[in-house]
Design brief:
Length: 135
């Protein structure tokens, strides 16, 4: 296998791991969003934000130790970068939900699922090159 193929394989494996971690985050996100929106009767975008931030925090930890195997001692700085990427993702997530749910009339949770798929691509790329990059 040549060098570029190895790099592509490693990147693909990281993306798969990122997806698995993201799925665990999806469970955290949807679970907390549902509890906040349906049980606590909080506003839907606040509920969405709470779920998203909780999932981002658990995802940081899992991605740090498993996906990107980071040993960077600057954990606070790295976590801040991860949260910055995640907050931009949250803005994109809420924007997509607003467009799909409020403007187009699609189901809230279906809209949320579509938004998560798009935001996953943003999050992986930004975290790979910004948060966990080791040249």
């Amino acid at each position: 296998m040549e060098f570029n193929q190895i790099k592509a394989t490693v990147l693909a494996l990281k993306f798969i791991k990122f997806g698995i971690v993201g799925f665990s985050g999806l469970l955290v996100d949807f679970g907390l969003t549902w509890i906040c929106k349906e049980q606590l009767k909080l506003q839907k975008y606040l509920s969405n934000s709470i779920g998203f931030v909780a999932a981002a925090s658990s995802n940081y930890y899992l991605n740090r130790i498993w996906t990107f195997e980071s040993h960077n001692p600057q954990v606070v700085e790295q976590y801040a970068k991860f949260l910055m990427v995640s907050l931009i993702g949250l803005g994109l997530n809420n924007l997509l939900i607003y467009i799909l749910h409020e403007q187009k009339g699609y189901n809230f949770y279906g809209s949320k699922l579509v938004a998560i798929g798009f935001v996953m691509l943003w999050n992986f790329t930004a975290n790979y090159f910004f948060t966990f990059w080791t040249a």
